[in-house]
Design a protein that fits this description.
Elements (H helix, E strand, L loop, with lengths): L7 H25 L5 H4 L3 E2 L2 E2 H25 L1 H9 L1
Antiparallel strand pairs: 1-2
């Protein structure tokens, strides 16, 4: 049976997970990129994206992760406090 209404908690949890996965992949790619300006000199690319494009995706996904994390905390504030008190 398909739910008839939108579930904000579930969507936020999946968004946090997805942004974490994107940050992990882009962080690994940026870790293996040639140092400094070498990547620009040799026109380094991976999957059609340059070093600066990978960096932009990493930064945007980091901001989205932080925002989704705050929304996730908002939705689960009572549960978090219950964990802390018990």
């Amino acid at each position: 049976m398909i739910a008839s209404r939108w579930n904000g908690r579930g969507f936020t949890s999946l968004l946090v997970l997805a942004m974490f996965a994107v940050m992990t992949v882009t962080g690994f790619v940026l870790f293996i990129v040639p140092e400094g300006r070498v990547a620009y000199w040799v026109n380094w690319q991976m999957l059609g994206l340059s070093k600066s494009e990978w960096g932009a995706i990493h930064i945007i996904s980091s901001f989205a992760f932080a925002l989704a994390g705050l929304v996730h905390l908002f939705f689960n504030w009572r549960i978090l406090l219950n964990y802390l008190w018990n």
